[in-house]
Design goal:
This protein is α+β, with helices and mostly antiparallel strands and 341 residues long. The protein has 7 helices and 14 strands.
């Protein structure tokens, strides 16, 4: 609302805590095996908070420092902490259960990669020999990150203060890939502005950003005094089978990553656009709970070094062996593919 005489009106508002760093160790007292996760968490809220902007009324403000503390506390007590999507749903549902004036909680969890030495470690043959991995030693096996975005919104008009609906997306960021053959780019528009040479074989490299979106999920907010008790029984899908595919995002995310790598490696690419489309179609085909897929694929260019000055051919595709990596300018290709209904 605006005070009389003010030229503007508040039309939307949200606030929260960004870049909450969380590292969690889960110890099995019987096997002595440890599991670890490392997250970067963003927590934002919307609701009846407008007076904090328009009237300097802090009585409606849950401090962002409290949001950080809640995130850390949930990381300690939540049974879902090893699963980013389940943890984000738990955190969002807890915020709505605890603070009745909050209408929507938005939680983003970025997961950094840690793999158990002896299972995924390239330097170890333990997997091939059938030996278990180390109980508590890990290594960073890639710079790409899995993420989930969860929006939990109260459904007071449709079912009372204890029900909500969740929108869940997952995906990958910064998955850097390259192949030195199996990619062409020909038959594009040629006019007076065209200087690019057609090639039937080239280096194809990109940093994959993938986002896939699930159907909405009905959420029953925690009903205990502290608003903490939350599990699979609190969520239900909107489809006829009631399945909550987002609850299994860990498996689906791993499968989407494998599909992305497999299509990239084996597709005889006519263009980045064509390969992107094949990736998305396979993600939809093999994961029926996903409603749409979006890829963003920036080109990572490798330019053959011209050695004509010394009488060496290093520019024709079959002879090009020395390249200069070029950061900019770069192509940027993206598309969203939705499930056909």
């Amino acid at each position: 609302m605006a005070t009389e005489g003010e030229p503007g009106v508040l039309v939307d508002a949200r606030y929260g805590k960004d870049k909450v760093r969380v590292f969690r160790v889960v110890r099995d007292p019987t096997t002595k095996v440890h599991n670890v996760v490392e997250y970067n968490v963003t927590v934002l809220v919307e609701g009846a908070i407008e007076t904090s902007y328009t009237q300097a009324d802090n009585t409606v403000v849950v401090a962002t420092d409290s949001m950080k503390n809640i995130t850390n506390y949930l990381a300690k007590v939540s049974p879902h902490v090893l699963d980013p999507a389940r943890f984000a749903l738990h955190l969002g549902a807890h915020l709505l259960a605890r603070y009745t004036h909050i209408q929507t909680a938005l939680v983003t969890v970025d997961q950094l990669r840690w793999a158990r030495i002896g299972i995924a470690g390239a330097e170890s043959s333990a997997k091939e020999e059938g030996r278990p991995g180390h109980n508590y030693a890990f290594w960073r096996d890639g710079a790409d990150r899995r993420f989930v975005d969860v929006e939990v919104a109260r459904k007071e008009k449709d079912g009372g203060a204890n029900t909500a609906v969740a929108k869940v997306s997952g995906g990958l960021r910064d998955l850097l890939v390259l192949k030195s053959s199996g990619s062409a780019f020909e038959n594009f528009v040629r006019d007076e502005y065209t200087t690019l040479v057609e090639v039937d074989d080239r280096i194809f490299s990109t940093s994959v950003d993938l986002r896939y979106t699930y159907d909405e999920v009905d959420v029953r907010l925690p009903g205990d005094e502290k608003g903490l008790v939350f599990g699979e029984e609190n969520v239900r899908g909107k489809g006829n089978d009631g399945g909550v595919y987002a609850w299994d995002d860990a498996k689906i995310g791993s499968r989407a990553r494998e599909i992305t790598l497999d299509v990239f490696a084996h597709d005889e690419s006519a263009s980045v656009q064509a390969t992107l489309y094949k990736m998305a179609q396979r993600v939809l085909s093999e994961n029926k709970g996903i409603e749409k897929v979006r890829y963003v694929l920036p080109n990572k260019h490798y330019i053959p070094v011209d050695m004509k000055y010394i009488g060496v051919d290093n520019t024709t595709p079959r002879n090009a062996e020395v390249f200069t990596p070029v950061d900019s300018p770069s192509g940027l290709i993206s598309a969203t593919i939705s499930r056909r209904r």
